[in-house]
């Protein structure tokens, strides 16, 4: 059995290397940081560029308030030291929509 998640997202400076280690061979990693560029194990890395846009965020919040926009995931935060158990829950289908690993 191959371990790892099919895709991961990183938004923490210095966190891409940790997110990368959780991705299965051939998987994908999206990151807003430029601190990691390894492409081994067939993992595709996408660097995502973002800029602050208060008016756009306010518009999205209004759409959510009116029920015109939904977010289907409800991430759970789990400490990095407990990642083996988190991965087991994801692989067994009991991890929820997303798990956020925190240091």
Q: How would you portray this structure in words?
A:
The protein is of the alpha/beta class and 103 residues long. The chain has a domain at 1-50. Helix content is 26%, strand content 26%. Strand 4, helix 3 (83-91) and strand 5 form a beta-alpha-beta unit. It is globular and about 40 Å long. The model has no long low-confidence stretch (mean pLDDT 79).
Percent of sequence in beta strands: 25-35%
Radius of gyration: 15 Å
Low-confidence stretches: none
Helicity range of the residues? 25-40%
What is the number of beta strands?
Answer: 5
The first-to-last residue Cα distance is: 27 Å
Shape: globular
- Largest sheet geometry: 3 strands, parallel
Mean pLDDT: 79
What count of helical segments does DSSP give?
3
In spatial order, strands of the major sheet run 1-2-3
SSE order, one letter for each helix or strand: EHEEHEHE
């Amino acid at each position: 059995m191959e371990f790892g998640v099919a895709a991961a997202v990183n938004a923490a400076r210095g966190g891409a290397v940790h997110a990368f280690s959780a991705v299965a061979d051939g998987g994908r990693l999206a990151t807003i940081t430029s601190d990691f560029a390894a492409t081994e194990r067939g993992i595709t890395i996408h660097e995502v560029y973002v800029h602050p846009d208060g008016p756009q965020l306010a518009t999205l919040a209004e759409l959510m308030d009116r029920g015109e926009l939904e977010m289907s995931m409800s991430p759970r935060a789990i400490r990095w030291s407990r990642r083996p158990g988190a991965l087991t829950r994801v692989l067994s289908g009991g991890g929820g929509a997303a798990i956020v690993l925190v240091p």
